């Protein structure tokens, strides 16, 4: 095998492995989710952003950017703090804001492809 081809294959393998290990930015990991969830004005700002019904803050735009990948990959690129935050938000929305939860699910998973896949996990989150 040509050395150049071998080198290119090695570089490709390294880049694929690196891409699989990449995490989402942790720049916004310190957003106070409890404050967002208990403050209607803050919550509505994020909700409207995610529903394409209002402007997005920098944090909301970042969330919106990464949400499809997080849904598709079971949050594989999420940091641990993001995974815990997702559980907290899911628990709060399903218990306290079921209409908004349904609207978000309909928007971000219109084919119900992932919703059914994650149903048992959501039940676990609710019972934790």
Automatic annotation (TrEMBL):
Residues 1-19 form the signal peptide. The keyword 4Fe-4S does not apply. Gene3D superfamilies: Insect odorant-binding protein A10/Ejaculatory bulb-specific protein 3. The keyword Ribonucleoprotein does not apply. Keywords: Signal. This is Chemosensory protein.
């Amino acid at each position: 095998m040509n050395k150049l081809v071998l080198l290119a294959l090695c570089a490709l393998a390294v880049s694929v492995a690196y891409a699989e290990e990449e995490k989402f930015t942790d720049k916004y990991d310190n957003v106070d989710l409890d404050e967002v969830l208990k403050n209607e004005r803050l919550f509505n700002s994020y909700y409207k952003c995610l529903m394409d019904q209002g402007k997005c803050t920098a944090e909301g735009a970042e969330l919106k950017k990464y949400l499809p990948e997080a849904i598709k990959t079971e949050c594989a690129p999420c940091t641990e703090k993001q995974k815990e935050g997702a559980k907290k938000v899911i628990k709060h929305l399903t218990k306290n804001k079921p209409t908004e939860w349904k609207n978000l699910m309909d928007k971000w998973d219109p084919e119900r492809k992932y919703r059914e896949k994650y149903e048992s996990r959501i039940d676990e989150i609710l019972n934790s």
